[in-house]
Amino acid sequence: MTATAPSGAAAPVLEVRHLTKVFTQGGLLSRRSVTALRDVSFALGQAEIVSLVGESGSGKSTIARIVARLDQPTSGTFLLDGRDVIAGEKRRASRAFRRQVQMVFQDPFGSLNPNQRISHFLERPLRLHGISRNRDEIRTRSEVLMTDVGLTADMLDSFPHQLSGGQRQRVAIARALAVEPKLILADEPTSMLDVSVRIGVLNLMRDLCDQRGISILYITHDLASARYLADRTMVMFAGEIVEEGPSMEVMARPSHPYTRLLTSAVPDPHRLHGFDPATRSELRAAVHVAMYGPGGKPDAPTPGTEVVQVSVGPDHRVRRREPVRASEVTPA
Ligand code: ADP
Ligand code: MG
């Protein structure tokens, strides 16, 4: 939404500005374009965790992939420590960039080659980024990384299949930590894990932020974990960040109909106003109007409407479509 730093924080580590991404899907005869991101802006402070919540297909991974430089935006850019990355490096991510931004993926099974011992996944980035060249030192650093993420040094000699899903995800986090990044993009890191081990992985991310000052973009479709982990939550729908604010506020006083729809599905003892009085089908209709105007469509919003950003509380903002105010219509 706004590209300003959260209040009280130092200059943002990450500042995303007006990212738009259009994908072309289908074959020659059935080509169509999909706008995965539409004018997405936000900022992430140092040692801050921000949750990005939204249903499947809303564009969450596309943001992460662009910021990790695995994909190019159609327009817009992002700044890392105030430096424009897209303008600075064109297409390919430099090694220096990859040292600063690391990604943790959803699937702890797919992200580790089954034929390699765990030691390989930690030693490789240490060597590749020139953090250490000495064998013994690399081994010692790997052992420390293992204990840092709550595993044991002897697991370095195991193969991925000998570890549980939760342990594998901890290895993926240790691998990200090996290069001492500023920013970790965690794309649904717990959604494939057993419920019983999720909380441990969330607590580990909290520790990384508190103890090492790492900033984390935590992507999830689960509102409860979003609030548990992050002070600030951004809600995404159909390629737009529709609401953003302190996690407690966003969940207790959801303003955008999509956020209200999301929170109405979760029984929540913290919610101030009990269950949303609007029915889910009323909310769905309201989501459409808030996004595209009455009778509007994603690529053809109602004429005479515009997207506005409204402040609904301290640091709490909602983005929705409203009729263009008469005073703003310039006469022809
Ligand atoms: P999320 O992570 O929130 O589930 P994604 O960012 O993966 O959502 O996808 C957003 C939209 O972009 C979806 O409609 C998806 O189908 C589309 N999309 C994502 N990646 C590609 C791609 N490589 N090619 C075409 N369409 C894509
Ligand atoms: Mg995704």
From TrEMBL:
GO molecular function, one term: ATP hydrolysis activity
GO biological process entries: peptide transport
Gene name for this UniProt entry: oppF_9
SMART domains: AAA
Pfam families in the cross-refs: ABC_tran (PF00005), oligo_HPY (PF08352)
Keyword set, alphabetical order: ATP-binding, Nucleotide-binding, Transport
Source organism: mine drainage metagenome
ABC transporter domain segment(s): 14-263
The keyword ATP-binding is annotated on this UniProt entry: yes
The protein's name in its UniProt record: Oligopeptide transport ATP-binding protein OppF
Keyword Nucleotide-binding on entry: yes
Disordered: annotated segments: 313-332
